[in-house]
Amino acid sequence: MKSFVTIFSVVLAILFLFYAATPTFAGSSESGKKIFKKNKCIACHQIEGPAREKTIADQMKRKGPELWYAGSKFKAGFIEVWLKNPEVIRPMEYYSITEKNRGDHIKLNSADAADVATYLESLRSGAVKPVGIQPAVDRKGRIIFSKSQSCYGCHQVLSRRGRVVGGLTGPSLIGAGKRLNPDWIYAYMTNSTAFKPVKDMPIYAGILSNTDMAALAAYISTF
Amino acid sequence: MARSLFITVMISTALTLLVAGACVAGAASAPDNYRFYCAQCHGLEGYGDGPNATKNQPVEPRDHTSAYEMGKLTDEDISYVIKDGGIATSKSTLMPPFGKTLTDAEVTELVSYIRKLCNCSAR
User: Fold this and answer.
1) Where are the beta strands (DSSP E) in chain B?
2) Domain assignment present for B51
3) What tens digit of pLDDT does each residue of B69-85 get?
4) Among candidates A55, A97, A204 on the partner chain, residue whose Cβ is nearest the Cβ of B51
5) Would you say residue B94 lies in a domain?
6) CA nearest B33 in A: which residue?
7) B43 neighbourhood in chain A, CB within 8 Å
8) Is the ipTM reported for this complex over the cut 0.90?
9) Nearest residue on chain A to B31, alpha-carbon basis
10) Of the candidates A98, A147, A169, which has its C-beta nearest B52's C-beta?
11) Does the A29-121 domain belong in CATH 1.10.1740?
């Protein structure tokens, strides 16, 4: 009996430690969906796939990034943090050549941010396969990014001296490692049309090999 | 019998033409493609002043209105650059490859459009 009490106590202690160490993430997907609807987020963000855009005009009608695969695209926890403090990711207004991003995205309180994040993280796409890309400062990835394809032409990055450099039309890649699921970067490179059939970034499938794109995804994941 | 066959053939032909027309309509015009893809760096009017032409970039995008600069390139050169990127004519890799993004017909139309911007031809 005494040994039973001891084992029971140890199990309880382990369970307590486990839950205490796990970050609280008490968001409710159902509630998040309601908040999403109430705030009219749907006016800018598409939450149902698959992508249906066929022409440039179709894409230009979109006012914000599609979120129907948000749970596959973003790293767990990122959406919640971002919704509480929405810092500019795209320097320009969505697909605009002339207008800078005004940085006026709606800001949510902690409870709402947790709920909406839980809801958005439940939206996933089978086009993102768990290939297991790991962040790596790979020579090949670095050469493709900085030399052979010059991705910084459209995407902001930090220079070696820590200065913000690069173009403005693509989403900034500063902090991409904290924001994006490495497997999503790979999926987006190799099969971009599954996510965005019409986009202003060139299609690289057929230009870079899958091995090159895996190296590139691993490299971007270190940003 | 012959009449119903005639009607069937006519309807099939009309449908085929409709589908073919829809496919052609799916390809974007050169000005639309230019504004969507090229203007990011080359600017809406082609002056090389798009939003990606920031001060910290190692080279400036080509000014497509410059007859002097654009006259150095043949139509083939421009076509190669659009499809394979700047590296195709030993230019900057900041010009990315659009060969898997645009159809050959769209590239040809873009070359003509760019020639209108510079109001020039190859010297």
Assistant:
1) none
2) yes
3) 999 999 999 999 999 99
4) A97
5) yes
6) A56
7) 97
8) no
9) A56
10) A169
11) no
Question: Would you say residue A25 has pLDDT above 70?
Answer: no
Residue B13 located in a structural domain: no
Question: Domain A139-220 carries which CATH code?
Answer: 1.10.760.10
Q: If DSSP codes are grouped into helix, strand and coil, which group holds residue A164? A: strand
Could you tell me the CATH number of the domain that includes residue B50? 1.10.760.10
Q: List CB contacts (< 8 A) between B54 and chain A.
A: 165-168
Q: What value does the mean pLDDT take over residues B12-20?
A: 48
Cβ distance A207 to B100 less than 8 Å, yes or no, reads yes
Contact at CB, A149 and B93, closer than 8 angstroms: yes
CA distance A10 to chain B (A): 60
Contact between A200 and B40 (Cβ < 8 Å):
yes
DSSP A29-48: HHHHHHHHHHTTGGGT---S
Q: Using the beta-carbon criterion (under 8 Å), do B94 and A153 form an inter-chain contact?
A: yes
State whether residue A220 is helix, strand or coil: helix
CA distances from B80 to A151, B73, B91 (A): 19, 10, 11
Residue pair B89/B72 in contact by the 8 Å Cβ criterion: no
Residue A21 predicted with pLDDT over 50 = no
Across chain A, mean pLDDT equals 92
